[in-house]
């Protein structure tokens, strides 16, 4: 993912003047096959939009997304269809994303029909397989979404994403709507499925405990940009960007010796339609220097695989 950018134009002003919302503002990120990369950040930081741009469910304003060597931003609708099979989305709210008037069997068969896969009999067989793979049973196929618990619905959402045998799954807050006890079940299921089907995950979350559980590498986003990216151990052991430090300081740490002093972030997340100049974190940063107010810090490698965009580094 190179310089991925999504600017929304909204006519919001008092006189109808255009306002540009810089939802995603030049994201660079590499995701290797078979790994789980998480994007973490507060709501409104652009993480969901980034996920959707990567799948081209939202058209990026600029940038490149290479998937197996091809820039999917340049693909025609017909070619994109082929790639879509390989890249699926799991939603935060499985209830809102499951059609209430369709049976689970039909919900799971739909993607196969859309992609013209198999005969009716073959599709039925695949649907019956997939429902068991996610821990439900054939008896559930004739039921409707409202007959299931939140956790079961997310299993159905995962089955629907999995039925096309994708390579990449973008999971946007897949457990945020669930009780904590159910969250662990779904995360464990996702990890088992990853091993079984060699899946690559882009996992989007605001929850650092969940991210710690599931990720190999973590990218921290702030106001449409990646401010720090590192493998999980390195990031949690040695958070370097002041924003990452503040985020992590709010999470209970299992090892009391490593406990970070709680850092309270001053002020609100600025509006992405009017981001601060220079380092966009500067109005909230305790280490802000003069240079921070005018110059955008580049993402630089501070040690092997650990990248930070901060003038302190
Ligand atoms: Fe803080 Fe400056 Fe680093 Fe931004 S660049 S995070 S303002 S020290
Ligand atoms: Mg979101």
Automatic annotation (TrEMBL):
Superkingdom: Bacteria
GO MF entries: ATP binding; ATP hydrolysis activity
Disulfide bond recorded as keyword: no
CDD domains xrefs: ABC_NikE_OppD_transporters (cd03257)
GO biological process, one term: transmembrane transport
A family per Pfam: oligo_HPY
Keyword vocabulary terms for this entry: ATP-binding, Nucleotide-binding, Transport
Domain ABC transporter intervals: 1-248
InterPro entries: AAA+_ATPase (IPR003593), ABC_transp_ATP-bind (IPR050319), ABC_transporter-like_ATP-bd (IPR003439), ABC_transporter-like_CS (IPR017871), Oligopep_ABC_C (IPR013563), P-loop_NTPase (IPR027417)
Similarity comment text for this entry: Belongs to the ABC transporter superfamily.
Protein name: Oligopeptide ABC transporter ATPase
Annotated organism of origin: Brevibacillus borstelensis AK1
Lineage: Bacteria, Bacillati, Bacillota, Bacilli, Bacillales
């Amino acid at each position: 993912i190179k310089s991925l950018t999504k600017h929304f134009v909204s006519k919001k002003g008092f006189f109808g003047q255009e306002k540009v919302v810089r939802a995603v503002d030049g994201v660079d990120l590499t995701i290797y096959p078979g790994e789980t990369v998480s994007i973490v950040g507060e709501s409104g930081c652009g993480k969901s939009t980034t996920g959707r741009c990567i799948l081209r469910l939202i058209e990026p304003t600029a940038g490149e997304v290479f998937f197996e060597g091809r820039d999917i931003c340049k693909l025609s609708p017909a070619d994109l269809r082929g790639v879509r099979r390989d890249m699926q989305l799991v939603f935060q709210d499985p209830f809102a994303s499951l059609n209430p008037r369709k049976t689970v069997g039909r919900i799971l068969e739909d993607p196969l029909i859309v992609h013209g896969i198999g005969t009716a009999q073959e599709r039925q067989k695949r649907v019956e397989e997939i429902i068991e793979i996610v821990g439900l049973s054939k008896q559930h196929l004739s039921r409707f979404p409202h007959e299931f618990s939140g956790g079961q619905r997310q299993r159905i959402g995962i089955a629907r994403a999995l039925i096309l045998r994708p390579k990449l799954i973008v999971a946007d807050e897949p457990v945020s709507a669930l009780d904590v006890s159910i969250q662990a079940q779904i995360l464990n299921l996702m990890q088992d499925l990853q091993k079984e089907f060699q899946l690559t995950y882009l996992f989007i979350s605001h929850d650092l405990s969940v991210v710690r559980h599931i990720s190999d590498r973590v990218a921290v986003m702030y106001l449409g940009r990646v401010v720090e990216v590192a493998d999980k151990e390195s990031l949690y052991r040695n958070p370097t960007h002041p924003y990452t430090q503040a985020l992590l300081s709010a999470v209970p740490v299992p090892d009391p010796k490593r406990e970070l002093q709680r850092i309270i972030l001053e002020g609100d997340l600025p509006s992405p339609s009017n981001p601060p100049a220079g380092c966009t974190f500067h109005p909230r940063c305790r280490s802000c220097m003069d240079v921070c107010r005018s110059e955008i810090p580049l993402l630089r490698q501070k040690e092997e695989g650990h990248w930070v965009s901060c003038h302190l580094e």
